[in-house]
Write a structure and sequence with these properties.
The protein starts with 8 loop residues before the first helix and ends in a 40-residue tail after the last helix. It is mainly α and 872 residues long.
Amino acid sequence: MFLVSPIRAQDFEEARNTFFSGDYGKCIELTRAQVDKGIWNDFWSRQLMRALIETGEYEEARDVYLALMEENKFTSSIDLRTLGASALRYCGQEEEGQKLLDEIPVLLTNAPWRYSDRENLLAVGKYLLAEGEDARYILESCYDRILKSDPTYVEAYVAIGELALTKADYQEAVNALSKALEKRPEDPNISFLLAQAWETSDKEKSDAFLKAALDLNSKHIPSLLFGVRKLIDAERYDAAEQGIEEVLAINASTPKAWGLRAALAHLRGDYNKEGEYRKKGLEKWNTNPEVDFIAGKTLSRHYRFQESVAYQRRALKLDPKFLPAKFQLGQDLLRVGLDEDGWSLVDEVAEEDKYNVVAFNLRKLHTRITKFTTLEAPGFIVRMEAKEAEIYGERVLALLSQAQDVLCKKYQFELERPTTVEIFPQQSDFAIRTFGLPGGAGYLGVCFGSLITANSPASQGSSPSNWESVLWHEFCHVITLQKTNNRMPRWLSEGISVYEELERDSSWGQSMSPLYKQMLLGEDFVPLSELSSAFMSPKSPIHLQFAYYESSLAVRYLVEKHGRPLLLKALEDLGMGVTLESAFSRRFGDAGVLDKDFKEYVQAITASFNPDTDFSKGDFAESAGLEEIQAWVDKNPNSYAGQALLAQAHVQNENWGRAKESVVKLLELYPDDTSANGGLKLAAYIAKKTGDAPAERAALEKIMKHSSNDVAALLRLTELCQASEDWEALATYSGKLLAVNPLIPNGHEGLVAASSALQEPLQAIQPLQALQGMNPLDPAGLHFQLSSALLNASSGEHDRTEEARIEALLALEHSPRYREAQQLLKQLVAIRNGEAKLPSEFKTAVGELDTPNQLLVEPPANGSPPSPRKAS
């Protein structure tokens, strides 16, 4: 009779905990001892093989499995079989490993009763997931069954979390993994999986879970690799290299490590090493698609989409069924403008993997995008929601065409393929197209090289940003990314785009403020050589915005101190694969000297920003009364905070004379203050309350010199300009209003009124056409106005009388007894028949508004854009 000594529960616990803590040598020692004793419990064999595979001892892991099979032990174990298949593959025995996996369905069919316990159900679920089986089926037939019989089984929650992560269902992953963590907090893998689950929505939580995983096991390879990828994303390449070395010291054959290392070599311009590292990653298992997939995905995160396409195609050549590579390829193709192939692959993945959240979202979005209107101009393909395209699509094309003319010449670069621009009226659609998932709050537009995605004003509520500045910014990315073959750090790309915004319009982009002055002079200032870190690991949203501003200062410094030609040369260097450090050293000199020079440049700028003003908060009590505030200000006359509080107190008391005096002093301290309770806003408010229209307009005009998206100020300016019959100014501010929100009628109406008064019928056509799409109260009158404008804009070279005739007919369709429209139609028919000539001057009224506030369309409800007019 064969007897073995009993195994205590603490023996299992000790072996498992050595694995959790990263003491893999001890784990191998403990488990091998039990396996050698012939203990009839496959836990020891499984744990031994996991530790051996984790440390790259693939031959030993294979031998353990083959020995068990020779002894006819645990031949029905799915878990051991998958471990054995993995070991065989890493030993270059791909066919033998695949055979083990191919036999699993036969085992399940021949003896299903053997696989009804929790361990086997778990193994079956993982196998089915790897084979691409339906996720819902796996949950119901495997994991849910386990939890019904044993709600305490941690592995089931972990498996559900892993499944959810593969489908990008992060909420479900968090729910399952949180339960697992409660039951087994010592397992670093659970904390690592939670770090992944929180990455897209809460960076702080993600970082905290990653730290927790590494605190439990400093040798936890998945966590180390996750950290390496974050370091690469942050362009901290030296630190990333060190992280890879840590991983390879544990397992010199880790495929993901070599994939990351290949991507890192590419980003550093060391293409020979890139090839060596890829080859090294495939050394043990030469058909493993994971190496190419990881390398390509890492490059895609750095906007190297073409390179990622090549890597994903390599991965699929090694394994045509590897869905992650197929899906990544689809997304990358969409980003390089190969829409037909990209959407086709997304559709394939969504069909094969019905619970892939990102694929599902993209597939639904594609259906909506197909209903967009497509507008084209030389060099551009613009897709917009149909009604928005009708209202301001032509303005989009005009702005982009102007950006192309200016920036291509400025950066000495000709685009070889059209730029695709997609503008989304729903922020969630923008986020799905851009990131694959809802979210991305704070992003107005994103450029991928030849593709721009942007939020429309409709997606931004009552306070939209200036869409013209957004598109100008993003198109500048098109130029610089393509000029450098996407080989530029984020700070330089963003810095150039913000710089060019300000070059185009001083009210666009970002400007110096008291907060930025404080940050530049304090610990938040980042040396030029470290600016990438400001984007990759900002302390707060304010710090991220500051990173954009400081980067634009860095670009301005390079242009002013070293010259634009050298900057263009540096961009060309990057495009040829030269590293940023080498390119900047070649063009601008020593990095240390550059950092010192840039800091002095910034200090000079900050010193000139209201140098005599004290922007500190002040030490007066928040509840201080008017007399106390006045006394404090008398002692601290240069205190911005004190003077602002005093001015606000006078305004609240409606003491307009004293309020005006305080505001004058406030503006002496900070003349360009456009903040909500700042000097210019208070000056405009006081002037309006006291009926001083010229002073109000002057204050509002100063605001608009520094702000590009103040809708309230622009609306008031158009009213004031129309009341004073300053038609040129009305046209200017109406245009600025349309650059922020073209979905309300006011800007279009202002242009119509201005063009009528200035006798410029051509300028009335576009706004009249836009107003037709905004539920006009008098559609007949609007068609008549457009007909008149088209007629009066006609000439021998640009005869638009046929369009005018159609508009006159539409006016009569709405109102058959419309006498003026009847007369206009007769005139147009006579012109068409040669019985009359085109008007030689502006005679037919374009149709001024009867009063400055009369609306041609229904006013928007609750500040929302008017609903689209239904097609008849």
